[in-house]
Every structure is written in C-alpha cells, then in structure tokens.
Amino acid sequence: xxxxxxxxxxxxxxxGDIDLMFNPIDYSVKKEVQKTGKNSNIQxxxxxxxxxxxxxxxxxxxxxxxxxxxTEKIVSLLKPSIxxxxxxxxxxxxxxxxSFSYRGVVTKADQKFLLFLENGIPVxxxxxxxxxxxxxxxxxxxxSSKSESRKLWVVKSGDRLDLIAFxxxxxxAQWRRIAVANEINNPLSFPKPQDxxxxxxxxx
Length: 204
What we know:
single chain, 204 residues, alpha+beta, 2 domains, seven-stranded antiparallel sheet, 4 helices, 11 strands
C-alpha cells in the first residue's frame, strides 16, 4: 500500500491533518551553513534548513467540482491565524511522507490551473508550496537562555544522538550531554517525526 503524504497543522483553529490528493511530484530542501570569520579563520557555527518546497498535483475533473475547494485548505495556511502579543503569523505545520518530515510555516503558494470545465471552473491544478523552518515556542525560550555562541544542530531524518555527538563533538559518548542540554527525556526514541527540523544546542 502506497503511503500518502499529508500536511499536519499543529496549531490554530484548523489544527489537524490535510490529506494530499496525490503524493508530491518532487520536493527540495535548501540548507545553508552559518559561519563567522574569513579565509583561513572561517568557523562553522551551524547548518540551517531554511526552506522546503514541494510540487503538488490536484485533479477534480471526474467529480466536476472546483479544484480550488481542495487547494484552498493549503493556500489558507498563508493567512496569519496565530496571534501573539504584538504580531500574527501563519500556523506551524508538519509535512509528513513516510519517514521524512519537515516542520515550518507556509510562506509561499504558487498555483497554476491546467484544465477547466466549459463554464470556466478549474478542475486541475499544480501547486508549488514553500515552507520556512521555524522554532516552536518552547525552543525559542530554550534558545534565548543559552549562549548564542554555542553550536546548533538541525535534526534530520536518520539522526541519532550518538551520531550527532560524534559529528559535532568528535565523541559519540557525549550524547548524554546533548540530551540533557535539550531536555530530551527519552533518548532511545529520538528523533520522533515532530523532532525533524528542530535545532539542538550542542554543549561546549
């Protein structure tokens, strides 16, 4: 059985899963290295997963219904619905497909209509959606209490704490320190799908 991709809205009035009509045509993840210094004095700080883009396809021709009724569920994720003290922002979402997941907010949705009924109603479309990675509130509080000079690690699918410790600290035995610094209570089950895209503090 083919596993279907979905967008899980994690907060707000529309919290819940948005099942996609078809799995993505393609997707891309943009990574950027954050560094300081120049030339031989360049120092690596962190790898930031800043953007995630997917191309989705929708078709309601057989039902003869407006395809926008389906795509609007995703396009509406652009609308600010989470109110803070001084700002508003779109809801944080989790894109899930098999073992891969990405957490962020929808920042762009380009829709192209490909087929129409005789009355002009669109029944087929291609939707390009871009997410930007964000920290959840708990991570923002945690990050603000730590030294900004410390290294960060963006969790990706297939990561384990011992592998992260080896890559970042050259010692896999330091995984316990990373778990404690980031309040990971169950290291053996880390990372869970909701941890993908999370930024971990790497202790000095």
